[in-house]
Amino acid sequence: MENNIQTVILCGGKGTRMGCEELPKPLFNIGGKPILWHIMKSYESFGFKDFILLLGYKKEKIISYFKDCKEWNVNFLDTGLNTGTGGRIKKAEKLIKGDTFLATYGDGLSDVNLRKLLKFHDKHGKIATLTGVCPPSQFGIMGINSHNNVVTHFQEKPKTDHWVNGGFFVFRREVFKYIKDGDILESDTFSRLVSKRELAAYKHYGFWECMDTYKDNLRLNQLWDSRRPPWAVWRRKEVRK
Fold first, then answer.
1. Dist CA 216 CA 209 (whole Å)
2. pLDDT tens across 92-134, in order?
3. What DSSP string runs through 188-220?
4. Is residue 21 scored above 80 in pLDDT?
5. Of 81, 189, 200, 209, which has the fewest CB atoms closer than 10 Å, so is most exposed?
6. Does domain 2-134+161-235 have CATH number 3.90.550.10?
7. Percent helix, strand and coil across the chain, each to the nearest 5
8. How high is the pLDDT of residue 184?
9. pLDDT digits (tens, 9 = 90+) for 204-214
């Protein structure tokens, strides 16, 4: 039954900060395939092949790319150009078949074990679970001796000690009671869930990166070209355990 769980993917973003507005962000390529393909391939690796793509900007291009897909069951839902992330998920309520569904953003890659995430969610019994990650610092850092102000070392973009929302969600159907049509998921919906102590965090210590800018896209392509892209869990054995 777990393999029938649907995955909702937020695909409404523009590519403005990518330096190109001709494509929606989920269609920017990594290794010749859209980042959205990489995300869906990761979910498939854990047995999840039923997707609902929440569309907005340049929706027709995403539909054109995936409409003849044979690998997965793909449903398309136009959720509007300027709808908030919570509002987009709210619009998917009518398409959700079971009591539990997965969700993620259309611009983030990770090697998170989705089976373990789902088990964590079931164990804690909350309405919603998000994946917490510690992103790398935007800048390299240096150590300075507090007594004589001598530089002691440099460290290139270390991971921070702060947890942030990395996406990769699990929701019970009850979450729709906490989402309003105009919601931004991260600030509105999650605030209501936090007030009821109904939001759990699954801590992920492995790879996670968000493709927010053209520079991020270049880095992810470099990782792919290294032939050992850390998010490509489908290349590994026994990922479903």
1. 8
2. 999 999 999 999 999 999 999 999 999 999 999 999 999 999 8
3. IIHHHHHHTT-EEEEE--S-EEE--SHHHHHHH
4. no
5. 81
6. yes
7. 35, 25, 40
8. 93
9. 999 999 998 99
At 35, which helix (H) or strand (E)? helix 35-45
- For the chain, the residue count is 241
Q: Residue 240 has what pLDDT? A: 47
The answer to whether the CB of 110 falls within 8 A of the CB of 38 is no
The chain-wide mean pLDDT, for the chain, equals 89
For 31: left if phi > 0, alpha if psi spans -120 to 50, otherwise beta; the answer is left
- C-alpha to C-alpha distance for 222 and 230, rounded to whole angstroms: 12
Domain range annotation of the chain: 2-134+161-235
- Which token pair is 191? 């605030």
> How far apart, in whole angstroms, are the C-alpha atoms of residue 52 and residue 74?
6
State whether the Cα torsion 23-27-29-30 is positive or negative.
Answer: positive
| pLDDT given for residue 173 in this prediction | 96
* 81-118 exposure pattern, b = at least 16 Cβ within 10 A, e = fewer: eebbbbbbbbbbeeebeeebbbbbbbbbbbbbbbbebb
Q: Is the pLDDT of residue 75 over 60?
A: yes
SS3 for 234?
helix
Nearest CA to 240 out of 48, 37, 74 is that of 48
